[in-house]
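Feature request disguised as a bug report, sorry. It would help if multi-protein outputs had a clear separator. Right now it looks like this:
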Amino acid sequence: MPWDIPDALPGGMLAVENAARAARARTSPSKLVMPLFSNAGFVPYLRNLLCSLQRLNVDNWFVIALDNETCPLLGATVGHCVHPYRVGVGGVGGGGVGGGGSGRGTAVQSYGSFGFYWIAMQRPLWLYWLLGRGYSVINCDLDIVWLHDPRPHLSQPGHASADVLFQPDSGHGVNGGFYVARSTPRVLGLFEAWLADLAAKAAARKGFEEQHSLNRALRINGTRLRLVKRVLDERRFPNGKIWWAWSRGSKADAFIVHCNWAKSNKKGRLRRDNLWFLDEHDQRCQAGFDPFEASCDRRCVPVKYCAPGMPCARMHNCAELHGWHPRARQLANCSAEPPATIPATSPKPQQPSTRARAPALNGASGLGMYNIV
């Protein structure tokens, strides 16, 4: 194949293939495997995602660790987590960018930093490698939670015939954080074009952005490759803009919720909407956790900011919880908000004008001056 995975040991690549083979054996009948990519800094988000999968008895995942600390931290079942590298990827996670050794550079990489995108490039490299060996894959970012198992939906006739299925990104093309890629020559051609674009941007040290390169590769090569692409329903696969900024969709309908479109306070957003499945110190899944508790979709828990690995600071000012779900107000020991009241006196009706009414323009009925809802 034209693309190699830097610093991957031959034994490590064999371990990845063994993990993929075991995952495929566990995921009948869809046969979709889900490699997850993490360094130690992202482990709290990885754990949260895995807790949401455990609740649904989804076991088609395995972890490709980008440093030698992730697997011990995760404590995953042997075979579920593999560290296939000589050192951390490109030095990240094993000593910082350009470094070596172990135990440094394991923190969350800042969005837009070289370290962040160097880690991000490992995904298309490994996915291309797996696709070339006949594995169809689900790519899933770590800031995603699963509410319902989407695999039966993704296997329906309208979707099963597609080469790729993408989460939408709200007017910015497709989202590279959640997609299904099937092992077909057309998909391999897409990944080759995508990796070539990434390599060119990396060489120029300018414009290196995984998702932008993906959308360029689709735009330029999709027709040539005769790629069959489908974009998933935004209400059933909402991204962060859909869920938080536009407040569209519900937990009853959404298969997943993706906390993108947020460079900071991801844990706070997830915790606030009762989508953080971990205990107070992010070590293990909360027993009996129910993301649907009290039928709350948003603003369910009175928190503003939460740092990974630390307890969240609760809100206690009831005035700040105006408009929040009753569950949040109850957790903050606030009384229920009073229902909206109708003014005691109604405004006086307008007196009819004695002047002649001007004719409506362009056939307008005159209702345009009111907001009809």
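(second protein starts here, but nothing in the output says so)
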Amino acid sequence: MTAPKEDETSGNVKSYHGTPLMRAEYNALMELEQFIHNPISLVSEWNSNIFGFIAQENHVIALGIPSKELTALPENICNLQNLTRLSFKNNLLSTLPDKFGNLTALIQLDLFRNNLNSLPVSFGNLINLQTLELGENQLTSIPASIGNLHSLVILTLTNNFLSSLPVSFGNLSALREVKLCGNKLLSLPPSIGNLKSLVDLSLHENILSSLPESIGNLKSLQKLELQANSLSSLPDNIVNLQSLHYLYLNENSLSSLPTNIGDLRFLERFDLRSNKLKSLPDSICNIISLRNLNLERNELFSLPINIGNLINLKEIKLGHNILSTLPESFWMLKSLQSLYLEGNAFTSLPEKIENLSTLKWLYLKDNQLNSLPIKTKNALKHLERQGCIIVLNKMEI
């Protein structure tokens, strides 16, 4: 006869609706069940939207209680010390238990869309955490102990009320993706330049008026979102971000760009719309990897003469500036598919426009193109025959 397990003989295992669990973990689920007025289902797979738990060898290893209007958690939830994945997303939690940091086995934690206004100091004990979702809460600060989360790879803090980040933020050396959009950030700590593994940094919709020089140290960064801030200038060493592919600076107050912005040689998408740019540095013509360039709603009256060097450009948006002419080289953009020129001061266009043989969309509304020369009209008709859609004010081509 097989001897019963020691845990069973000592009474340390109890059955939670048919699932054997260690007593402390059984008690935690029973109390949580009382909070939500429902038994918690045993499930075979887990993601943060699934209600239920996964057990292994009498331990709860994954738990999801989404969308149950939870306003608080029982203290003994901190006894689930074998948990690797935990979700309380879309609830009404305003605080976490002080001993929440006891859940040291956690790898993934989702607390999206609650009412959290602070995190316990013990949060820094979650040293195995790799993914942390805290978006859409009420956080006004995060504890300095967060800098202890050296395994953290993905951090989401979108749509909170953060006005600053602790200096220890720069200790999160494994971070690859950080989402901080929709906060109240006034500045970034210089230590952010220590995040050498960072690939994706989202800071849009904050109140940033400047960037630390150390931002140029983020040599692995591929995507930087800074739109809808209050930036009036950029640090010169932003051009050190040699891995950058996507740069969003729209809806700021930039009146100029660093003269050597063209050193960002791998940039593919560059969004500068709704700034105060009157001109562009010549070096921008060196970014031959550019595919999308948005310069709408600035104060541009000219473009660099070598703009035609951007041989891979597929879309350029120049609407709502004060342009009246384009450089000769512009008509050499052989890859261009979409050209937006609406709301400028053009009175005519050269017949060379027909050289843009790959053009599919041409926006010309709200200029002063009242009477086009016959050669220009023929050039536009030639583009139409090639399949280009031309958007004008009411006038015949």
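Even a blank line would do. Unrelated, but nice: Residues 1-104+115-120 form a domain with the Leucine-rich repeat, LRR (right-handed beta-alpha superhelix) fold (CATH 3.80.10).
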